[in-house]
Specification:
There is one protein chain. The protein has 642 residues and is mainly β. The protein has five domains: 129 residues, Sandwich (Immunoglobulin-like), CATH 2.60.40; 138 residues, Sandwich (Immunoglobulin-like); 94 residues, Immunoglobulin-like, CATH 2.60.40; 114 residues, Immunoglobulin-like (Sandwich); 71 residues, no CATH class. It is built from two helices and 41 strands. Strands 1, 2, 7, 21, 22, 23, 24, 25, 26, 27 and 28 form an eleven-stranded mixed β-sheet that branches.
Amino acid sequence: MKTFDKIIKGRKNIIIILTFLFQILLCSKTVLAADVDVIDNVKITNEKGVVQGGYRPGDRIKIDVDWSIKSETKAGDTFSLKIPKELRGFNGTIQLKDKEGRNFGTGVGKGDIITFTFSDIVEKLENISGFFYIQSEIKYIERQGEIEVPLVFEVNGKAIKNSIIVDTGSTNSGGSPSKITEMFQKWGRINENDDNIIDWVLRVNYKGEQLYNITITDMISKGHEFVDGSLELYKGYTNHRTGNIDNQTKVPLKYPVNFSSSPSGFKLKLYNESETYTLYYQTKIVDKSISDFRNKATLEAYNKKPIIKEIMVKDFSSGGGASGDLKKYKGKLKLIKQDKTTGELLEGAVFELINDENKVVTTLTTNRKGEAITNEVLGGIYTLKEIKAPKGYKIELESEEITLNFKENKEIKKIVTNKKVTPWTPIEPIKGSIKITKVDKDNLDKVLEGAEFTLKGISEYNKNIKLIGTTDKNGLLEFKDIPYGKYTLKEIKAPEGYRIYEGEQEIIIKSQGKVVEVKVENRKSKTSSGSGSRNPDPEKPNSEKPDTKEPPVDKGDELPPQELDVIKDKLKDKLVDKDKKPSVKVNEVEKKDSSVNILLGKKEVKPKKSVDVLPKTGENGPIFNYVLGLLLIVGGLYLRKR
């Protein structure tokens, strides 16, 4: 039991020690963030930034503050400004940015206190200073005539005193009913506690006349909406001696009052009245991109012309800025250029170092060790720009912002990497060849020399192609390296003693390295002129009508091998009896069926049915049979008479 108590007691001591150490750590962290004294000046002007001799309650003013860092400051350090009770507070945020958009700190306003917290950029720069401003408003001050109002701003507990002259209004309560002529008036202002709410006031019949069938219409412009349930209606009597409204009482929004509303406004109807009515209501800002918020109210009564009052309320603006440099210290920048993958040191990379005024301070080129170093330069924020990559490499990051803080180190190293360029391999264009064989039509083994052809067409890249060639002694003509495309082949001169082939053949090139073979047949001329004919008249006997053929096509590799019935035997010029079926050999096998189909290109062609034809020499045709039958009939009649 004693042992157990000792263990428990020991654990308690450990917990106490750990708790104590944790509290020390928390305290040490708290010490790291400190309030710094940076505010130099606070200035009061009107809302346009102009110094003004006097103001009135409700007037807008502008508070301008200049600040600068005078001692070592770290990220998280703060300073605060407390706004005097005589002025409207501030609810919102203020960014302290420089012209490059770098944020030195952020201020957050909560009522009468604005607290700024610095970012880590204050640890990198020197000579840091800036400004901020807010728009405010002079609160209501009891009537005392024209007085000097002291304004005391507190900065981290220290007071910065200022003052303005305010005309609070005359203390003389005299007056007469004839001086109050107001029938309808309207006011608006941003809510003191919530910058997203606008407070509005409508005053009706301040003059105190008798009005009949009163209608008040309020129309709200874009950017804000009527807050449902916010309208309160009061009535009382105008004191023409003091100007006050006496005996004010709240009026329920029910009969005899008629009230209706929507986000875009409301309508209020009253009956016969001689009292003064005051309406208090709110709208909510729904679009912060708009700075001016308008509201138009109309008063209509049976015995009065309509009166319109349109009021604009401006949002309270704020802003700030900062700047700094590192020119207090000098040092050198050393660049090391490496292959991104292997780490190999690279020679020949060229860089520019550009300062904050966009001027090139120095140009650097890496040596065989992949290094480049500057002379002494001032500290600051620079742009490092790579303008040339090493041979065989490409620039990855053309430029980047770098901070040179030589306060601790007089030489700053920076590694810059590059990727190797993958060599570009050009894609070879598709090219093929067309091989033409010229033969005698009646003797296909006889090749013909001297036939001239033209090849025309448009290639893949819309280039017009026109080639001319002549068959050699082997009857061959080959057009080589013809680009992908569709072409037309035409014979323009026949071989000597032959008719020209008039037809045009369409040829398609679509596979790399393939040869499209074309065989062109010619018949001999009946009257040989001793030389080949060019562009003959198709009606003349030395011209030859073209055979109807499908264009030769380079089929490429897109179709798989197919087993096709190919007619190898050539049909001879012989007559076929109408009662007999033609016999055709296909792949050396005799086909007796007359419906043998022939595949030409990609089209299937069926042969025509057999027709009556004349017999060849040595064969008995139908006329012979007719004559023989007639002779037999005549002979029979002769024998019968005898």
